[in-house]
């Protein structure tokens, strides 16, 4: 009787599996065992690093249903460091270690408004490196708190123009140079001490030298600490500690950023959609993501349209559409202390970076702070998606592209990070009220204006 019951249960389980499996939509971006395999380049990464990338491509139901298109978001907020910047951080550090510009125990420095800094602070210890971040003091406070909690050192500075020597990026570059000078000075000092010791040893009597060697061997054999060849790294930057030098990550100009997305993110999107996509749209900060993904997708299929989504105060929209880097905010004297005055963080810029120069774009769209705020609340209410300001702006761009292309198209965008690191500004009711950005929309009517 028991055997018959077990057999019946087994048959029921098999039938249920087949029914459920058959009911799953045959959509190209549904994750499968085959599509989740790592590339040959990623196969060498282990531990935390292995968890970076291969993020799911999810259907944003509310926007898809509203437009008649399939709008898909690459859920980069599911990376260990919480954002798309994990990929660039890994690639930048790996290439620096391979070239010898960075050594184990060395310090990675970066000037960042938040996400790249968090990613570098997350992955640097996995490579045995330290991290020092320079961040503008008007960035959401929780970002610097996260970086410090990860063990990196944080230097908050006032926002100034990139041409100023004390712009946070320029300070980060100097910190790397200072670390290299300190390392060089320590090496020189160690060499002098070694030379002095060698000279003294050569003049020491043989019986005294033998006695000292015996004591040294005894200490090495009895001290358990000597069994650990590498002491754990605290991750803190200390000018008085043994310095292994510094390396400026330079996310804006370092082409490892672009390569991370050309070799990694772009191929994932292509594989997850099985090449069945019509358009890609994203905002740009450093330009690495939009450049790497757009170039890869264009090489696979020239008919795929790639678009930039630009926030207020950024000059990239005019650069793409008119060939001139220009923004009306500067002409009207509205620029205050930031390179661009917008509630969105990490996107928009008024210069062309080496990374952005690699982008292959068919056009550009503009978005507003209000549209980003309203979109974030719309996604939270209708899809349960709690995304940050740049992700919300990307979704505004996806709807614009969908409306221009018409129903029946597949559009991919990037969900850069979650709303967890935007609580003090983008998701702060009082902050929004002070800036006249309190959300009021019930649907997507805010995009009709």
Automatic annotation (TrEMBL):
Its EC number is 2.5.1.47. Residues 182-206 are annotated as: Disordered. Its cofactor is pyridoxal 5'-phosphate. The keyword Disulfide bond does not apply. It comes from the Eukaryota. Belongs to the cysteine synthase/cystathionine beta-synthase family. It catalyses: O-acetyl-L-serine + hydrogen sulfide = L-cysteine + acetate. One of its GO terms (molecular function) is cysteine synthase activity. Residues 50-174, 241-417 form the Tryptophan synthase beta chain-like PALP domain. The keyword Transferase applies. Residues 196-206 have a biased composition (Basic and acidic residues). It is an enzyme of class 2 (transferase). Keywords: Pyridoxal phosphate, Transferase. Transmembrane segments: none annotated. It comes from Paspalum notatum var. saurae. InterPro entries: Cys_Synth/Cystath_Beta-Synth, P-phosphate_BS, TrpB-like_PALP, TrpB-like_PALP_sf. This is cysteine synthase. GO terms for biological process: cysteine biosynthetic process from serine. Gene3D superfamilies: 3.40.50.1100.
